[in-house]
Amino acid sequence: MLLVLLMGAVVTKTDSGDGCGNSWPLCYGELLPTQPKLETIIEVSHRYVSAWLGILVIILAIWAWKRDPHRKEVKILAGSAVFFIVLQGLLGAAAVIWSQSSAVLASHFGFSLVSFASVLLLALLSFEKREDPFVARVSEAFKKNLYWLFAYLYAVVYTGALVRHTGSSMGCGPEFPSCSGTIADLGSQASIHLLHRIAAIVLLIWIIYSWYHARKHYKEQKALNKGLQFAALFVLLQGISGAMIVLSNLNLFVALSHGLIISFLFGTLSFVALIVYRK
């Protein structure tokens, strides 16, 4: 799942989405195009690895349903993994055949993350011990706080994907944290980039507050504290990698690390949301 997420980021960062023209599922009418350019190789590789992943996710979902037919969360996660990987695949195909808006393209990464998190949680639940279940008992108020935090993270992910698909990564210029672009126009690259920065700062503060609250009031909940501790670490690394994208003038490897860390953060908060949800 992580490999496909990274390959998708490479497709976007290298502008290889049109590497096969508007031909799908074949590439220029061929299974393996002859004398392909670099962007064609990148696009074809992403398609075939994604197709193989889709098959694996379907097998995993069926296996999970048969192995744990009585656990509701397993059924939900298995269905979610299949639904969202199929949906993001169809969106990818639609983007190739018909041109899509930046808003629709941004949702492609978000759906991939949901499928990734579903597979990750299925993997964790498969190793769960009956005498030591992944459960955290917290107040209803703090539980709602964590649910809203998770929902807000998804919105921040969407703003980040929008930055990528609108070409706004350098919308505030080559400096950080200042923004030298024109932000008066809400549709400008500078305004889109600045919106993502502000949303990310709020996310950082929210996660650190939640970690502090859990350490203060729920010390005995080890899984909860460990999850929020890792979430705080990942959100800090995410902010640093975001700044480095600007300062390095869109270095490809820095940009890929940005996408990788957000996957870790999303998976971690997915786990936190799961353990406070379970009885």
From TrEMBL:
GO molecular function, one term: metal ion binding
Residue spans crossing the bilayer: 48-65, 77-98, 104-125, 146-163, 194-212, 224-247, 253-277
UniProt keyword annotation of Chaperone present: no
Membrane topology type: Multi-pass membrane protein
GO terms for cellular component: membrane
Top-level taxon of the source organism: Bacteria
One Pfam family here: COX15-CtaA
Keywords on record: Cell membrane, Disulfide bond, Heme biosynthesis, Iron, Membrane, Metal-binding, Oxidoreductase, Transmembrane, Transmembrane helix
GO biological process terms, semicolon-separated: heme A biosynthetic process
Cellular localization per UniProt: Membrane
Protein name as annotated: Heme A synthase
